[in-house]
Amino acid sequence: MRLEENAASLYTARLMTELLTDGTALAALRAAIAASPWTGLDTEFVRERTYYAKLCLIQVATPEAIALVDPLRLDLGPLGQALAGPGVKILHAGRQDLELFLQETGVLPAPLFDTQMAAALVGHDEQIGYANLVAQLLKVDLAKDATRTNWAARPLSGRQLAYAQDDVRHLEALRDALLAELERLGRTAWLAEDCAALNDPALYRFSPEQLVRRYRQGANLSLRGQALFQALLMWREEAARKADLPRSWVLDDAVLVDLAARPPKTRADLGGRRGLDERQVQRLGEPLLAVVQEAPDRPLHPWPAARLNPEEDRLYQALTALVDARAKALGIQSGVIGSRRTLKEIVQEGAPGNLARGWRAEVLETEGARLLAEAAERHAHAS
Question: Is the pTM above the cut of 0.85?
């Protein structure tokens, strides 16, 4: 047996049963990925006690074997480069996994085939889980007894490793089944378009505007209160990032709302605030007062109104009815074309996003283009 064949044999035997923790085995895995027409991927992580998700396990499937990579023991940079090679990368609901790969390696795996996205485009629930999809398409029932595993703990048990292997074991079979249905329906280009959107690094960059959107309670404050609330959100985000702590461990949302509604002027004003103990006042008092003093008078990223005005509601109802009708005709859920939240944002802000391009624009046809243009024009006049 040649040396290369012997190495490949050892690779196959070891990676099916062991947690990969050494650089030599990782190099063999990188070579296998580079030579493979497809690679299945999944990750396990924890983030209950940190700002950044802590990557704890990477599951990799190739035609030869399943590898379980220990990111707590290995430099993942070279693996990221291998995952950017020509073979298709198969994931299920892969956005969080992709964000972790970008965070840890600086590279986004590509090209992609997301089995949850593919399933939604052929008529399954748009949020269908991996185990349910495997059961429906492959008639295989997967164990669910390790769903609450602490993946950061070591050593991992044989049961945990088997569970982790199952998360990638069936990805290639799912892709084959879903690809056949996509081809039958003429929707392979639709999936390619949606998967390409996942490979845009901008999707994973910090956006102050998107941060603000998460906290809709700010819309109930005065304009000055909104501006201060946004400044406090930005300050907390940076503090949590620097300390690598959950946001709420820095200060709770309710505390920020209260500070924005009743701005403190002195350290004494911070005393007795619900949710702020004396230690927090001592540690955070000066930074909080500085944020209050330096905050602008008006919000940089205004919240849309909680309720639609009559003209917006008319457009929203028309757009919703059109999306529902097109989705029903295609046999898919409405949210696959555009969620209710997305449609509301369109009529309030005039930005059509992906409804104005690609396959979504095609299925909405002339009527969709007309409604999107009307929303954009109405918003431009209002501004």
Answer: yes
The identity of residue 22, as a single letter, is D
- DSSP string covering 126-180, please? TT--HHHHHHHHH--PPP-TTTT--TTSSSPPHHHHHHHHHHHHTHHHHHHHHHH
Per-residue pLDDT tens over the stretch 52-95: 999 999 999 999 999 999 999 999 999 999 999 999 999 999 99
- Using an 8 Å Cβ cutoff, are 171 and 142 in contact? no
Which of 10-19, 134-143, 146-155, 258-267 bottoms out in mean pLDDT, i.e. has the lowest? 10-19
Dist. CA 19–CA 11, nearest whole Å: 12
Name all domains of the chain by residue range, CATH numbers in brackets.
3-204 (3.30.420.10), 208-294 (1.10.150.80), 310-382 (1.10.150)
Please tell me the distance from the alpha carbon of residue 371 to that of residue 23, in angstroms, as a whole number: 56
User: What mean pLDDT comes out for the span 98-107?
Assistant: 96
Pairwise CA distance, residues 345 & 106, whole Å: 32
Cα angle 115-31-202, degrees, rounded to a multiple of 5: 50
